[in-house]
From TrEMBL:
Keywords: Aminopeptidase, Hydrolase, Metal-binding, Protease. It comes from Ruminococcus intestinalis. Belongs to the peptidase M42 family. The keyword Metal-binding applies. This is M20/M25/M40 family metallo-hydrolase. The keyword Hydrolase applies. It holds the Pfam family Peptidase_M42. InterPro entries: Peptidase_M42, Peptidase_M42_aminopept, Peptidase_M42_dom2.
Length: 340
């Protein structure tokens, strides 16, 4: 699992440019399921009885946050706009890498404190950020084009206590959980169809979930994503969410109460650790799109606890990924929430 997570997090796949990660994931899933990539770039893997009347959909998103190149000045410095929710506070000394066949690295320009009057102490907005690739304009223009995408550079690293840190764990850890789930149920005799949707553009417009769920037309769906774990200075309900205490089962007005209740009962029955995530409105996940597809899809959300979301140093516990996969597999083996 650790190696799978590391491999997933090393691949590009900024929103709208998910081809490399889609190809990798399709190859992984093809060992357990009939797998295709649709015209929008979604990976769709089908298990169980393909001709069954009932379909359970499992979704995780392929894309990661990043940047799109908007201009290059005469000195070779590059301007970008954000693709997804970039935290500008972490940009001042970040290393970025192009998502190209021959990746090149650049650094975000920052003012030395010796030359600052204090105005630079606040995070600069994205339209004030410049990227330095260390090359003159002519060389930069050979390697970087307007419309190219960049993302945070960072090698995944193992921390102590079964934890890892990497950029893009949102939502590559969700993908890892679904690949593991496919392995767990791949040889089971199921009387219904299970479809894994690895969807594009969640961090921008949710395009992949909208079109993929419309095509699949499932009876019930579970979106697998990340949510907030406790860290210093976090207060409120997320102060009580811990790493290594299991996946978070969401309870929300937009979700199916029957599905949330069934996930909770399965976790209790199978002794799979879990945590509650009550949300008073929409969930901020693909479930918001899937639940209103066509005439509606009963939906649930299972999230992997994560620290430092949307930064180059996101942190998870590997056991939470394994337990997410186990919970999903047991839910599916039991027939889902509507198995009568």
């Amino acid at each position: 699992m650790k190696q799978l997570l590391f491999d997933l997090c090393r691949i590009g796949g900024v929103s709208g440019s998910e081809e490399p990660i889609a190809k990798f994931c399709a190859e992984k899933l093809s060992a357990f399921a009939d797998t295709t990539i649709d015209k929008n770039g979604n990976v769709i893997a089908t298990l169980g009885n393909a001709n069954a009347d009932k379909t359970i959909l499992l979704d995780a998103h392929l894309d990661r946050i990043g940047f799109i190149v908007t201009s290059i000045n005469e000195n070779g410095f590059v301007k970008v706009a954000s693709c997804g929710g970039i935290d500008v506070r972490v940009l001042s000394d970040a290393v970025l890498v192009s998502c190209s066949d021959e990746p090149v690295k650049g650094v975000v320009c920052c003012m030395p404190p010796h030359l600052s009057d204090g105005g630079e102490d606040k995070a600069a907005p994205i339209d004030k950020v410049w990227i330095d690739f260390g090359l003159p304009y002519e060389k930069v223009a050979e390697k970087i084009k307007i419309g190219d995408v960049l993302t945070f550079y960072g090698e995944p690293k193992e921390l102590m206590n079964n934890r890892i840190t990497a950029p893009a764990l949102d939502d590559r850890c969700g993908i890892a959980a679904l690949i593991r789930c496919a392995e767990l149920i791949g040889k089971k005799e199921l009387s219904y169809k299970v479809v894994i949707l690895l969807s594009v553009q969640e961090e921008t417009y949710g395009t992949g979930a909208k079109t993929g769920a419309y095509r699949i037309n499932a009876d019930e769906a579970i979106a697998v994503d990340v949510s907030f774990a406790s860290q210093p200075d976090v207060s409120g309900q997320y102060a009580g969410v811990e790493l290594a205490k299991g996946p978070m089962i969401c309870i929300s007005p937009i979700l199916s109460k029957a599905m949330s209740d069934k996930l909770i009962s399965v976790a209790k029955e199978k002794n799979i650790p879990f945590q509650y995530e009550p949300i008073s409105g929409t969930t901020g996940t693909n479930a918001d799109h899937i639940s209103v597809t066509k005439s509606g899809v009963a939906s649930a959300v299972v999230s992997i606890p994560q620290r430092y979301m949307h930064t180059p140093i996101e942190v998870i516990d590997i056991s939470d990924v394994e337990n997410t996969a186990a919970l999903l597999a047991e839910y599916i083996i039991g027939g889902g929430a509507f198995n009568d």
